[in-house]
Amino acid sequence: MNDSFGAGGFNPNSTTAQGAGNETKKDGILPVCIRQLLLVDDEVKMFDLSYSMVNLVAIVRKIDYTSTKITYTLEDHTGRIEAYYWLEDENSQQPKVTTNAYARVIGSLRNNAENKTIIIYHAEEVEKINDRTTHLLEVLFCRFKAEQFAKGGVLPRNGQSMTAALGGGSSSAGAPMETTDDIAPNGLSGKNLLILQVVKNYDGPDQDNGISRQEVYEKVPKIPKTEVDAILEYMMSEGFIYSTICADNFKSVE
């Protein structure tokens, strides 16, 4: 086996296993430890698969507030990194996390003056030790299964999270996944496509303002709210949907 785990983390610069195909751009959420993020060059990769979002569980060591953003210093057993949550205005909802407590952070990696940082899409406290242990198991599981795929297995389809593509029957929060096997012309599939269809096909009473975040939760009860939030943020950043009267109402651009 290609030993891409060094002391405490994944080495993204290791040689890809023989038989891997050309580099493939993928959209999805990859469970990681901090050291993996500190070692990457420009994007998060797992054996030639690139992922736009990461799922991290770490201790919140410090919180700094300004009028435009909240800065979190995150630490796990592999390293330390800063993460930013941007505020739209003074009334913006803030993540419910506290210092010296574990939190799950879903976001994307950014390079800032040669320092790696995370742009947070969603964050919440992790109270159960089982959730922390499950996250570490997912990190290991995805790493070793990705090598098997690189040696000739079927690669995850566009729009799938790594955990879903590798056969995980549940998310990191323990809820069963609810996905679709269809691949749309826009390249979305899995949970991304499912949530886009929920937004697009909304036929509720508030047609002008679109579906609310709470209604999306209710339409896909088997997908954890943290992952729904991350997918909504991703689809807004990619131009599939947009917010209307507030940050919690959405309409499809189509």
From TrEMBL:
Domain called OB: residue spans: 54-123
Main location: nucleus
Any matching Pfam family: tRNA_anti-codon
Keywords tagged on the record: DNA-binding, Nucleus
Molecular function as annotated in GO: single-stranded DNA binding
Cellular component annotations (GO), alphabetically ordered: chromosome, telomeric region; DNA replication factor A complex; site of double-strand break
Bias type Polar residues, positions: 11-21
Cellular location(s): Nucleus
InterPro entries: NA-bd_OB-fold (IPR012340), NA-bd_OB_tRNA (IPR004365), RFA2-like (IPR040260), RPA_C (IPR014892), WH-like_DNA-bd_sf (IPR036388), WH_DNA-bd_sf (IPR036390)
Start and end residues of each Replication protein A C-terminal domain: 158-245
Gene Ontology BP annotations: DNA replication; double-strand break repair via homologous recombination; nucleotide-excision repair
Residue ranges of the region described as Disordered: 1-22
Protein family membership: Belongs to the replication factor A protein 2 family.
Protein name per UniProt: CSON006869 protein
Native source species: Culicoides sonorensis (Biting midge)
Gene that encodes it: CSON006869
